[in-house]
Design goal:
The chain has helices spanning 4-17, 21-33, 39-51, 55-67, 73-85, 92-96, 100-103, 120-135, 139-152, 157-169, 173-183, 191-219, 224-236, 240-253, 258-268. With 272 residues, it is mostly helical.
């Protein structure tokens, strides 16, 4: 059985690569504080802290990483470089007088340009709670927690993207598209927002194509090409059972359709 901290770490790596830093940060923290204590988990957590501007926390995790013996040479070099470039720690008196400008470093990834009201930790907790609902498929619950942040913390592209993906989950495409189009007009919009917008447009195009193909196979149920194309759209949407059924229809009406045969053979080799 794989340890829970390893599962959290692997998922965090995926989120990190997608640019979903705040979500990755929460899972890296979980990985570093549960199960077996591994240097690589502290290195990853430190890197996530760096990405979100939380330098004091990053310094502590990099130091813990080295205390545990470090890791691969590439990680050791990256950690040393990060520590060299990191702002010097402030004393208590200076910390007490942290300016609004410096406080930006405490803000989670995706925020920092809005005029936050209330406690930052509470805002982080609210965001993390909303993301947990989103990951569990509770899109309405996620919106109840995330949408208020658009007003209280700012309409940043990262937050707009997360809210839009909740609406995508609820199949409210027009609302999602409006939020994403707002996000991409901002000059520092991260690439994952464009990915979300592209995915939404692709999905809406697929839905339109499926509607047209459904009419086509109803009018001409023995049209092999219509069935083949229907299978292709289902496959693009990840609907593999529907794709298989459509390609079998295509092959039944045109046994010489080599591509339909190849596609079915490919599907048969997929893990079930």
């Amino acid at each position: 059985m794989v340890d829970s901290d390893v599962i959290a770490y692997r998922k965090a790596i995926e989120l990190f690569k997608e640019g979903r830093m705040l979500e990755a940060l929460g899972l890296f923290r979980e990985a570093a504080t549960t199960g077996e204590d591994r240097p690589v988990e502290h290195f990853a957590l430190a890197t996530a802290y760096m990405k979100t501007g939380q330098f004091a926390d990053a310094r502590g995790e990099y130091e813990r990483f080295f205390e545990m013996g470090g890791g691969e040479e590439g990680q050791n070099a990256a950690a040393r470089k990060a520590l060299e470039k990191m702002p010097a720690p402030k004393d208590d008196a200076e910390d007490a007088a942290t300016s609004d400008e410096d406080a930006r470093h405490l803000r989670p990834s995706g925020f920092g340009r809005g005029s936050a009201e209330g406690n930052l930790d509470a805002i982080r907790e609210q965001y993390a709670d909303g993301v947990n609902y989103y990951r569990a498929g509770g899109y309405q619950g996620a919106l109840e927690r995330l949408e208020p942040l658009l007003k209280s913390y700012g309409r940043t592209p990262e937050l707009l993207n997360t809210v839009a993906n909740c609406y995508i989950g609820l199949e409210a495409a027009p609302r999602a598209q409006g939020l994403l189009e707002e996000a991409v007009t901002q000059p520092d919009c991260p690439p994952e927002v464009f990915v979300s917008l592209g995915r939404l447009r692709f999905d809406e195009g697929c839905k339109a194509a499926l509607a047209a193909l459904a009419v086509a196979v109803e009018i001409a149920p023995d049209n092999a090409l219509a069935w083949f194309n229907k299978g292709a759209v289902h496959f693009a949407r990840g609907e593999y059972n529907e794709a298989e059924a459509a390609w079998k229809k295509a092959l039944a009406f045109d046994p010489r359709d080599r591509q339909a045969q190849v596609n079915l053979e490919f599907l048969s080799r997929r893990p079930r």
